[in-house]
Amino acid sequence: MLLSAYGSTLDQATIGAVLRLHEDDKNVGPHELAAYAREQGYRAQVRINGTADLLRLLLSNGTPVLVETWHEAEPGDGLGHYRLLTGYDDAAGYWIAYDSYDAANLIAPDGPYQGIRLPYAAFDADWRVFNRTYLLIYPPEREALLTAMAGPPAPEAESWQAALETARMEAAAQPNDAFARFNAGNALLALGRSGDAATAFDEARSLGLPWRMLWYQFGPLEAYYAQGRYADVAELARTTIGSGADIEELHYWLGMALSAQGDAAGATSAWQHALSLNPGYAPVLDALTAYADGAGATVTD
User: Which fold has domain 157-292?
Assistant: First the structure.
């Protein structure tokens, strides 16, 4: 939907055949989407800690924005979901979004598809589950305009520090907010503070997270591993896999935890399964190479 706004004839099935590496692939990350867009000749940026004001500025200047959100068709049955924002109505208080999954609140119930309404408050509650991640994908000739509106990409540490401050403000305002603590954990992890990140993730989990949360975000596994909590990594990875998430990242972290516990056969089995899902998954290839070289596995980004 986004690329078609710039004249591309690629459809969802064509793109999905490249990005969804197996029939039950449940997680295509934003960086994978951005990489694919670059391969098609577009510029692409993945940013976090977005704001409503920035969305309005981009949309009012003809720049659709892809956002990663939570979505619950039924209470307690949420999942990660991408939506393409195309407009907004401040008077009525909603965003206009193109959505390949959801047909509720259609702009035009009859006639050609014009998108759906996403009320401002409900949208933000869903968007912040993913640290308000958004993707800017655009032709090269729009580079100057995008930079004028959104600014150049900030240094990674600066972006994550801003996201951490947002998460802390939200946690202070809502002490029982699990998502604020989860977002803080991801920010702390990105800033190299794995011990503090592990504590934040523990708090988020104790407050209660959606059961599919770790289908899409793997920060707790990385933070716990960095803190030597290998049994916790293995248990959490197995539990999430058992919920129906046959995802290469989970098998990678399971393998890392088993390797750290001295279970070479179990680690290799987990990594081989990850490669059956994504044959080019670099962290697993690096881990197996380290094993073959006799150096043991090391974490790779």
Answer: 1.25.40
